[in-house]
Amino acid sequence: MGLHVAPNTAEQSPIIEFRNVEKSFGPIKVLDQLCFSVKPGEHLALIGPSGSGKTTILRMLMTLESVTAGDVIVNGVSLNHEYKSGKELPASEAHLRKMRSDFGMVFQHFNLFPHKTAIQNVTLAPVLTGLLSKAEAKERGLKLLKKVGLADKAGEYPSRLSGGQKQRVAIARALALQPKILLLDEITSALDPELVEEVLNVITDLRNETDMTMLLVTHEMGFAKDFADRVLFFERGKIVEEGPPGEIFQAPHHERTKSFLRKVIAAGHRV
Ligand SMILES: Nc1ncnc2c1ncn2[C@@H]1O[C@H](COP(=O)(O)OP(=O)(O)OP(=O)(O)O)[C@@H](O)[C@H]1O
Ligand SMILES: [Mg+2]
Questions:
Q1: For the chain: N or C, fewer Cβ within 10 A?
Q2: C-alpha dist (Å) from residue 257 to 18, 156, 209, 240
């Protein structure tokens, strides 16, 4: 008798789907027929050499880059197209703004507003978008600053904060709009080594205490191993290999993954 496998009704539909996504800057193709999907609540690490397209992927999700071909689907809705009276149209600014509201992003270089205090940086977006009143935004902002260990720095300007503190403000700012999906792009690579841990600890807490979907681009392979449910290794805009961190880091199948990991280790990053 053949083995009957019941359909897995628990299988969730993906929160993010890249369908044959291509991205070119002029003549240079940086994403090439890219397909992958992410489950709700999944913690994904994106690794790969410089120029492999990792930041472009996150920027696309933030609607900061458009696709050249293919489609990105978020919660079943196309990021790049709108359908009106059965017609496919390019996404309007209003559509992009709505789609963007699911995402929060933290950048390598913090990108804080230098002339605003920590709390002003955190409250700006929720007030400007009309999501919260000033008082509500401040209450939420102070809670978030407390969560990242900066309750006492609310009134400080970025110039008076350490790199690790600035990055924690940037994380609080990304959380202020209560995103479903958090995008983290090499958030520790501009930090002095002794400040890396305080930032990674905040990310570990978010990973363990929230149901946010998280996409992390990193060269911190040791952290990626602890953080990720799944690791994607990119090269030249394609996924070379993907799998659970135990497999990718301990027993990669592809020579290219092996040689990348060797180089990263040689550069002093622990695996
Ligand atoms: N706005 C742009 N105009 C032209 N080329 C770009 C632009 N943005 C990215 N690129 C190119 O696209 C490719 C992929 O860049 P991307 O920043 O996504 O790589 P990455 O994997 O994040 O690299 P790194 O590890 O150095 O951050 C690179 O060759 C880059 O030079
Ligand atoms: Mg990058």
A1: N
A2: 22, 43, 31, 8
d(CA 214, ligand 1 centre) in Å: 21
SS3 219: coil
pLDDT at 117: 98
Give the residue whose CA is nearest to atom 12 of ligand 1. 30
Neighbouring C-alpha atoms within 13 Å toward the C-beta of 163: 15
Sheet (strand 213-217) strand order: 103-106, 181-185, 213-217, 43-47, 230-235, 238-243
Beta bridge pairs of residue 106: 184
Tens digit of each residue's pLDDT (9 = 90 or more) over 168-181: 999 999 999 999 99
| Cα–Cα dist 47/259, whole Å | 13
Averaged pLDDT, 6-33: 87
pTM, rounded to two decimals = 0.93
pLDDT at 264: 87
pLDDT score of 145: 98
Could you tell me if the CB of 46 is within 6 A of ligand 1? no
